[in-house]
Every structure is written in C-alpha cells, then in structure tokens.
Design brief:
The structure holds 2 protein chains of 2 kinds. Chain A is built from 14 helices and 8 strands. Chain A is α/β, with parallel strands linked by helices. Chain A folds into 2 domains: 5-118, no CATH class; 126-241, 3-Layer(aba) Sandwich (Rossmann fold), CATH 3.40.50. In chain A, the strands form 2 sheets. Chain A has a 4-stranded parallel beta sheet with strand order 2-1-3-4, with helices on both faces. Chain A has a 4-stranded parallel beta sheet with strand order 6-5-7-8, with helices on both faces. The chains are: A alpha/beta, B alpha/beta.
C-alpha cells in the first residue's frame, strides 16, 4: 500500500441505506489521486448500543471495528458521528478493557471526510463548479465532539459558482440523535421541522451536510412537510460539482 | 392506574412538540437574551472559556472539601446568632420549617424565588398546615396564581405571554382584562407590599453559601428577596449542600458568571450577602435567622463518579435555553423540579427510585448544553453515563435491551450483516405489520444492494 492509500469506513447506514454516499466519497478520493482500500469485513462503530447505554454490546461491535482497521494507516469516514464514536468515545468505552490500547490507537487515524480533505489541502486541487445557493448543516458530533469548525465550509467555498449561506445561531441540532429519533420520534420531528424552516427562510436550492444520520432524518422530515431543496452529503455534492458520476450509476 | 412517568412524558412531549404557538413563545423568550449573553461573554470576560474552566475547578474544590466547608459555614452563621439546620430529605426540611413557624407563632409566609424549596413542595405543604404563603418573585407569583409549577429554573413563567398574564390576573385578582405590562407589574407590587410587611416568615433560597465567612448569598432582580429577608420577624434560607463556595472572594467570579449565563446581565440588580439576624444597633433585618442545608439525594451524586461534577451546577438555566429538546417540549413536560439537560442529568440520582431513566434518553446528545455551561459540566456525556447506569440497574424493561443485544450480535460479524441484510430486504414489505405508521415515516427504505455487495460486483471487475 502506498502512502496515498486511504481505508474507507462505510457507516452501517451508508452500507445499507445510502451506498451512493459511499461511492461518491470513493470517486472524490480517487479523483484526488488516492488509492482506496475497502475492508469487506467491516460492520459498524458500535454507537447505537453505546448510546443505548448498553456498553457491553457496544464493545462487541466496536471491538470488531478495531480489529478490522487495526493496521490501517488512514481511515476516512463520511460521518462525524461515527468518527467521534471511534476517536472520542472508544477511550471511555474500553477504559477497563484489555483491548484498550488498540482501541485508543485507532482513534487518531480515523478522519472525517471533510476534515481529511481540509487537512490534505484538497480545496486547492478541486476544480469543481456548481451553480447553486447552498445551506450547510454541520453535524453536532462533528462540531462539538470533533471540534470541526470550518473544514467543510473551506471546501465548499472553493466550488465555483456555489453560494454558501448560513442560518443564524449555528449549528443547531436537526433532531436525529440515533436511538433518540426512534424513541422520541415526535420531539425529533419537531426539531427537524424547526431546523428545515430556518433553512427555508434562506431560500437555498441545496442543503448539504457531512453526516448520513442527519441527512436521513432531515430527508424524512422534508418529505413530510414539503421542504423542496435536495439534501445531499458533502461527498455527493462534490461528486456532482466535479462531474464524476458515471452515466450508468 | 396512573400512567408511568415515562408514558406521561411521552404523551406530554408529543403534544408540546406539535404545539407551534408554544414553540414560538419559547423561541422568542429565549431569543431575547441569546444575543445579550453572547455579547456579554465577550465584553465582560477576557476569556470566557478560561472563566468557566476556573469556575468548574473552584466548585470541584468545594465538593472535595465539602464536609469541612459546610462545618465552617455553620460555625460562621452560628457565631452571629443564626442557626444552621441540616435536612437529609425533603420531609426533614419541611419539618424544620414547620417547627420554626410554631416556635415563633407564625401564620404567614412570604417567599422569594427558590428552586430548592420546589423540591420540598413547600407552598402546598405550608398551606396544608394552615399557613398563608405568597410567592413574591413576579414570575413565581404568576405560576402560583395559575396553580402551576415553575416552567424554567430562572424564568418560571417563560411559557406565558403578556396577554396570558393579563387574563390570569383578571380572573384571579380582578384587574383589567387588557392591562399592559407596567400595569400588571404594579398590581403585583401593590398586592405584595402588603404581604411583605405583614408576613411572619420570609423564605429565600441561597445562590451561594460562603464557607470562610459564613454567609448566604442571594441574587435577584426585583428586590423582593431583599424585602423577604428584611421585613418579616423570621428569615429562613434554604440551600442545597452543593451551593457552598470556599471563599467570599470567589464571588468575584461567580456573581458575573451567574448573571451572564442566567439572564445576560453584567450583574443582577440586587446581590444580598446575609450573615445573621439583625445585630444590635442595626435598623432592619429579622429577629431570627435560620439556614436549612438540604441533601435530598445530593449525596448520591457526590458519592459516585463521574456524576459528582453535576454538583457544580449554579442553576443558571443556560443549558435549558440552549437545548433544542427543551425548546420543543417546554419545561412542564419533564415533570421534574429541574428541567432540561441538567434536570435529566441529576433527577434520576436525586430521586433515586428508578423511575426517571427515560429523561437521559430524551436527548439527541447534541452537546449544546455542555458548550454553554458556565461551570463546565460535561452534561451530554453525563446523559450517556446515566443511560449506562439505567441499563446496569436493569431499569429499561425488556424490549430495547433485547433488541440491542440482537443488533450487536449481528454487527459483530460481517457474514451476519449479509444474512440480516438479505432477510431485511426480503421482509421489508412486512414492516407495516410491525412498525406503526408514525414511526415508519422516519425510516427510509433499504438500498437495493448494500455498499459491500456493490463493491464486490463493481470492483471485482476493475
């Protein structure tokens, strides 16, 4: 493997529901000259059980993840939430566990997609263009757990013709929260609806985010209350702006 | 049979979440202070992040030295002729209050705003014992007249518009139906002035208990707490044991910290420091001064890491304002004394009865609360710890723990994911049989093929 090799972390939600987001990430990374390594044994970071309070179960799944990616040099993940789980929460989850060292060692190698592009200075290499007024939804886990501030924005600002607009009081939660949106669907829906209303006021044509969970939740709410702008993953937007999507896909 | 607290929360949350009038009222009320608070953090503090970190450390020091500091506080108060009473739970605190009332032949109480007394249901208790009780904080008076509990730690009547209050005063006090804000305030003022001078006992809370000099500190904006301390013959201050600060000089940080985070003020209008009853030669103040130190479950937080840091809380209400869940469901829905993120962190421990495990789950874990907390409590991570706690105590029933076990079993091996994926795709048409329509709307359909399978197909031929 070359030093341009990156391993893909495909979140369970992308694997089962939104594979196109995974492919978009693959195409953008290849376009930038990276060799993409996909490890077919991967499953999930374990966050659903962790958030449910069932840490024993979370360790089962997370332990598998640590094994799969143990020898990877760099892992790129299209979700701030899964990245935060591995980087920020594994140390606590594995605190008294024999595999703690391996779990903690994996953390810094996992980079959220926009973070990776930003760190690599990819903004300069992108010759992307997309004429659209775009709103950006920063995921809470990316923002508050990983401390991602302007990473995605710095990439979006390099896209020719793209006008980035911001909602006041950013960033606000869309209401996803994993298990929360299942258990407390009425609260989660109200939060999404408030969130989308604020974007509606900005008269955007596209809403872009860096977390498949947020995107799923907002898409479902958008379908309910007639929010028209398309909601895309950052990778999908770049794929489009770089014209990378093959005709048959 | 009454519904469980969890079922009640679910029901109330769903109703409030869909109530757009409620949402607009709350967003407006919170929005008024939001900008002021952010501006003050920048103008009043050279480094807000450093200030809240330091505040957290001072509170940690106070908790680490808690027994010693509380005893020092007690010595200071007793030395000036006051009396400190200890209460292990709400019942004991109520008992103390009633004993004091009987000792001094008291019939009437005037209260200033205090969340700690809400833990005691003090108004209901005293009224039941034949006493007259008036809330003197305007917001508290409003909710008292409405027969409600405070909606918010700092802003008890946040959920009521000026018009709601005019209507309430019209019904309860016979005032003009269209009275304006100034007029309504004057009506409350006229009513309360009489009560201040005639009440036998004034009850206040305590924002801080100062250990080195033995003093109770009360912050307010209306002057009502100061009157409640000064006019009646007897003053009872009721404070949680976690309110102690080591030194008087710590107030230099904590007064602006609390007023900035709580109400967006440089400093609250009235900041009273009380150290005892009226001394010889003094013109005003009560003849008798009592401080009741309340535990009421705080020891359970104290004794268990990582939860002890929740005792740093100075009850500013910032985490409620920042919380998108609070904004959606409002304060009453929680059914607790303390609402919002801090309430969901501490209530399961304070109550200790295994019936509040649902609150930590009613959070998207967005972390807004943690980022605004002026004493740096890791609120949303404590919610995660509470969830783990609930699981270990087996408070979660059967369904979710079992579902998660099954999920983890599948996710532990790729080949199981493949099989489960095939099964789910085959059975997707059956979901209407198992999942209610309302929930189904939140679940998108599965992709025709998983990413893993597509990779095998496409990349094999590459």
């Amino acid at each position: 493997m070359s030093d341009r090799t990156v391993s893909l972390f495909i979140p369970c939600l992308v694997d089962q529901v939104y594979p196109e987001m995974g492919w978009a990430m693959v195409r953008v990374l290849r376009h930038l000259g990276y060799d993409v390594d996909y490890r077919p044994d991967q499953t999930c970071c374990g966050q659903p059980a962790f958030n449910a309070g069932q840490w024993e179960e979370a360790r089962q799944v997370a332990g598998h993840c640590v094994k799969v990616f143990g020898d990877a040099a760099t892992v790129v993940c299209p979700s701030g939430s899964c990245t935060a789980m591995i980087r920020e929460f594994y140390p606590r989850l594995f605190e008294d566990d024999p595999s703690r060292t391996a779990a903690v060692r994996l953390g810094p190698k996992v980079r959220e997609f926009s973070e990776f592009l930003h760190d690599q200075g990819a903004g300069d290499q992108l010759r992307a263009s997309l004429r659209a007024r775009v709103g950006f939804h920063n995921s809470c886990h990316g923002y508050r757990e990983l401390g991602l501030r302007d990473e995605a924005r710095s990439i979006l600002e390099r896209v020719d013709g793209l006008e980035l607009v911001e909602a006041p009081g950013e960033p606000v939660c869309c209401g996803f929260g994993g298990l929360f949106s299942v258990k407390y669907d009425s609260i989660a829906a109200a939060m999404a609806s408030t969130r989308l209303e604020n974007f509606m006021k900005l008269e955007i044509e596209l809403l872009v985010s860096n977390d498949p969970g947020c995107i799923m939740h907002m898409r479902q709410e958008a379908a309910e209350n007639g929010f028209e702008p398309e909601i895309l993953h950052l990778a999908e937007l770049l794929e489009r702006a770089l014209n990378l999507k093959p005709a048959h896909a | 049979m009454a519904p469980s607290l969890e079922a009640q929360f679910h029901k109330d949350a769903a109703i409030k979440a869909g109530d757009l009038t409620h949402r607009d009222k709350i967003l407006r009320a919170i929005g008024v202070n939001d900008e002021k608070i952010e501006a003050l953090k920048a103008s009043q503090f050279r480094d807000w992040e450093a200030a809240r970190k330091l505040a957290g450390e001072i509170k940690d020091e106070a908790q680490a030295r808690l027994p010693e500091l509380l005893e020092s506080f007690e010595r200071g108060i007793n030395a000036r002729g006051g009396k400190v009473l200890w209460a292990e739970d709400a019942a004991e605190a109520r008992h103390h209050v009633l004993e004091i009332a009987r000792r001094h032949n008291a019939r009437s109480f005037i209260k200033s705003k205090s969340m700690t007394t809400e833990e005691l249901d003090l108004n209901e208790f005293l009224e039941g014992a034949g006493m007259k009780v008036f809330e003197s904080d305007l917001g508290e008076l409003i909710v008292q007249l409405a027969g409600q509990k405070p909606y918010h730690i700092i802003t008890p009547a946040m959920h009521m518009s000026k018009d709601d209050i005019a209507k309430l005063f019209h019904e309860k006090l016979g005032s003009d139906r269209d009275a304006g804000a100034a007029e309504l305030t004057m009506i409350a003022r006229r009513l309360l002035r009489k009560e201040f001078v005639s009440a036998d006992v004034g009850v206040t809370g305590a924002n801080f208990l100062i250990a080195d000099e033995g003093a109770v500190v009360v912050l307010e904006n209306e002057g009502n707490a100061r009157l409640a301390m000064a006019c009646p013959r007897v003053h009872i201050a009721i404070g949680g044991i976690e309110k102690v600060l080591p030194r008087m000089s710590d107030l230099a940080l904590f007064l602006p910290l609390l007023s900035t985070s709580g109400t967006g003020q440089q400093v609250t209008c009235y900041n009273s420091i009380v150290r005892g009853p009226r001394a010889e030669g003094e013109a005003d103040g009560p003849e008798h001064f009592y401080v009741i130190l309340l535990d009421n479950g705080r020891s359970r937080l104290y004794g268990r890491e990582p939860f002890r840091q929740a005792l740093r809380c100075i009850r500013c209400g910032a985490c409620l304002n920042a919380c998108p869940v609070f904004r959606a469901v409002g304060g009453h829905t929680y059914g607790t004394t303390y609402q919002g993120p801090i309430g969901s962190v501490i209530t399961p421990h304070l109550r200790g009865n295994g019936q509040w495990h649902h609150l930590p789950y009613a959070s998207s874990l967005c972390g807004s609360c943690t980022s605004v907390c002026p004493v740096n409590i890791d609120l949303h991570h404590l919610l995660l710890e509470n969830r783990r706690d609930a699981d270990e105590r087996r408070e979660l029933g059967r369904f979710w723990p079992l579902a998660m076990k099954a999920w983890a079993w599948v996710m532990a091996r790729r080949e199981r994911v493949e099989w489960a994926g095939r099964l789910a795709r085959w059975g997707e048409g059956l979901t209407p049989l198992f999942v209610p329509r309302r929930k189904r709307k939140r679940i998108p359909p599965l992709a025709r093929r998983s990413f893993a399978e597509e990779w095998r197909r496409h990349e094999h031929s590459r």
